[in-house]
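step: validate -> pass
step: tokenize input -> pass
step: predict -> running
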Amino acid sequence: MRIVLVEDNQMLAQGIQKVLLDEGHSVDYFIDGSFADQHLEHEGADLAIIDINLPGLDGISLTKNIRKRNQIFPIIILTARGATKDRVTGLDAGADDYLVKPFKMDELYARIRALSRRINPLLAPREKIGKIEFDRNSRRIFYKNFEITINRRELTLFEILLNKKGQYISKSHLVDTQYGVGADVNTNAIEISISRLRKILSNYNINITTARGIGYMMDDLANE
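step: predict -> pass
step: emit ->
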């Protein structure tokens, strides 16, 4: 997922970034609420994590701006304010969840997983493709009763391609999802990951097709 993190505590932000990057997500990080607002208006996100006390534009105002633009991606508010009235203010502004500092990273990521399931509510919790089955809740791939282990970057690519099964997805979209919007990343990194993923999946009757200038598509070999 493309996750936008808006947090002025750099030590906390670094910890959150590490967890998300290790899980294969991209993170666009902002300290200033106004800069985050401009970015979100033009680029959007799959999910946003927003602190309340921010320079430039506070988190409540930022959340309201997002919802006024009819942007519907999930929002988690982070704050040291734990009173019921503060929670209500955050949720009324348009947040989907509210996490009080200090918190455990495991809890934050569990909430991210829960909200990510709302992004594509029509997608089955478990989906078969080729000879394998993907469990979206646990983000695990199975062949019969055995788990297929791939690295987090490749797992994220697999999820994106599976969610758009039978459709081409551009390389630029994959770069943004893997590394963040505007990241200075050589597109060869995506090509290498796709090549490794294609090699693994070919053993399970799954193909990744490349269309030059268009992108990549994953589908069952039987449908080729």
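step: describe -> The chain has two domains: 2-119, 126-223.
step: cleanup -> pass
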